[in-house]
């Protein structure tokens, strides 16, 4: 088990500058993007999103190769220790996951939905695939919440892309760590990882352990 050990404490906090307004080392524009993200998760937590303030196309962005390279370069300092997976390989694996679901890598809603589904799995030690239509429902639910955020329309392509890039890397670190701990039977580490991921998303506005994944609907508050 030791040779597979994955250190995630600093890894999970490494993206907080981009995901939480006013925290960490937020790049220019990250605060505005993180505000939209937090507002959207808060809407999910309330169980109701307002009317769309932007068209669906507002979630798309034109990718900038230089921005992708910069964010990828930053990942070297928080790469998974004990695993032979480079940031580039992590990104390739995430993009392959998006492709399997028919999601677009240049769509903030699609990338965010993949991140949130993976975070829900890790936080609850559950497999979203066991809920038919659950991930599709979550995708629709999250898109509605993002489109209802009043700040979405004002975000630049670069702001949307940077948030999407950081969510992608965070999702892969969650997922790979979770897989390793499950495969090696590291129950204590698995529980600790789940709690760290729960706290991370809770700081953004949503406590994933209070929600069940429901087919065709997405996240629904547990009773």
Helices and strands in order, then pairings?
Layout: H1 9-13, H2 16-19, H3 30-46, H4 65-74, H5 87-101, H6 108-124, H7 134-148, H8 157-184, H9 187-203, E1 211-214, E2 218-221
Antiparallel strand pairs: 1-2
Helix pairs in contact: 3-7, 3-8, 4-8, 5-8, 6-7, 6-8, 6-9, 8-9
How does this structure look, described?
The protein has 223 residues and is mostly helical. Helices cover 57% and strands 4% of the residues. The protein has helices at residues 9-13, 16-19, 30-46, 65-74, 87-101, 108-124, 134-148, 157-184, 187-203; strands at residues 211-214, 218-221. The chain has a two-stranded antiparallel sheet with strand order 1-2. Helix 5 packs across helix 8 (157-184), helix 6 (108-124) packs parallel to helix 8 and helix 6 packs across helix 9. The longest helix has 28 residues, at 157-184. It is globular, with a radius of gyration of 16 Å. The model is unreliable at 1-14 and 16-26 (pLDDT under 50).
Class from secondary-structure proportions = mainly alpha
Question: How many distinct helices?
Answer: 9
Shape: globular
What is the N-to-C order of secondary-structure elements (H for helix, E for strand)?
Answer: HHHHHHHHHEE
Strand percentage: under 5%
Strand order of the largest sheet: 1-2
Give the rounded overall mean pLDDT. 85
